[in-house]
Design goal:
Number of helices: 11
Largest sheet: 9 strands, mixed
Oligomer: single chain
Shape: elongated
Distance between the termini: 56 Å
Structural class: alpha/beta
CATH architecture of the largest domain: 3-Layer(bba) Sandwich
Order of helices and strands: EEEHHHEEEHHEHEEHEEEEEEEHHHH
CATH topology of the largest domain: Glucose Oxidase, domain 1
Number of domains: 2
């Protein structure tokens, strides 16, 4: 079937020509752009990070995740300066959307086509229709705050019922008091205000988007904590999680040894001797029976890591 429409998304000074239908990138294009992901995918081609890795990602810090991604050559995955609803972390797979200032002729065409395809309501509710358990709704509303409120407490309840997660909006939200009553829900937004969404239309769904200084692909792991929000490319999630878990073990061991005066700071902060490495492995076996990493994975890190 011949696709009816192409739009160009300017993202991080690079133009992507994305053929879309119902404002969604087609499956082949999404698979092409996320070629580095070799795992399971959703029906629409979006990478499907495992539930186990999502759970394990909850415990890693933004700082460590950022450093790992930066070392891998991914410096544009973090955005700070948010107004969060509460301190509950958000961890899940990104469903992306971007919005544009409304233009009557284009908005009419988008709305009419969506209605023919069975979509209901305003276009800001369409991304909610595709959400699944473990998803995080991530939207670029071009930084609009006044009259740029993408959701209120009604849509917030719908989102949480579908995903068990929250939202990240480069824009605003309303009904802060009502949203705060949704137990477990959190929202990272640029501002809160009581206005309604006006003069905004949906430009794309599950396409590459920009969130401030960060680029986000559908299926990226979203990790939102008090420090800010980081978007981990799906194909790097396992590496980031494993590396972060190893670093956490190493730091816990080092701090424990320093507090007990077993080693000097110069010994812990520099390359470890074979004796310290041996002590570290024995400490893990004696005290860390419930860690998610296996000893084979730990030994691999020990062999590859330069201290």
């Amino acid at each position: 079937m011949v696709l009816k429409k192409c739009i160009c998304l300017l993202l991080s000074c690079v133009s992507f020509s994305l053929c879309v239908k119902a404002q969604q990138i087609n499956k082949e294009e999404l698979i092409y752009l996320t070629k580095a992901w070799e795992g399971v995918r959703f029906e629409n081609g979006r990478p499907k990070i495992s539930d186990d890795l999502l759970k394990r990602a909850e415990s890693i810090s933004i700082d460590v995740a950022w450093q790992i991604l930066n070392n891998e050559g991914y410096p544009s995955q973090y955005e700070g300066d948010w107004q969060a609803l509460n301190t509950t972390p958000i961890v899940g797979r990104a469903v992306t959307a971007f919005y544009l200032p409304s233009r009557p002729d284009v908005a009419t065409q988008i709305k009419q086509r969506g209605e023919k395809e069975g979509r209901q309501g305003n276009t800001n509710s369409w991304p909610i229709e595709v959400l699944q358990n473990g998803d995080v709704y991530v939207a670029d509303a071009f930084g609009k705050t006044l009259d740029g409120t993408l959701i209120g407490d009604n849509l917030g309840n719908a989102i949480y019922a579908k995903t068990g997660q929250g939202v990240v909006f480069y824009g605003a939200s309303r009904d802060k008091e009502g949203l705060s009553e949704i137990d477990g829900f959190n929202a990272f937004v640029k501002d809160w205000n009581p206005t309604y969404l006006k003069n905004v239309m949906l430009g794309g769904l599950n396409t590459p988007i920009r969130i401030g200084h960060a680029i986000v692909m559908p299926g990226d792991l979203v990790l939102a904590k008090e420090e800010g929000v980081i978007f981990i490319p799906a194909h790097l999630v396992e590496k980031v999680v494993l590396t972060a878990e190893f670093i956490a073990l190493r730091d816990e061991f080092g701090q424990s040894m320093l507090k007990r005066n077993i080693y000097a700071s110069g010994q812990i902060d520099n390359e470890w001797t074979p004796a310290i490495k041996k002590h570290f492995l024995q400490w893990i076996k004696d005290t860390k029976s419930d860690i998610p990493m296996g000893m084979n994975e730990i030994n691999q890190f020990m062999e590859k890591r330069t201290w």
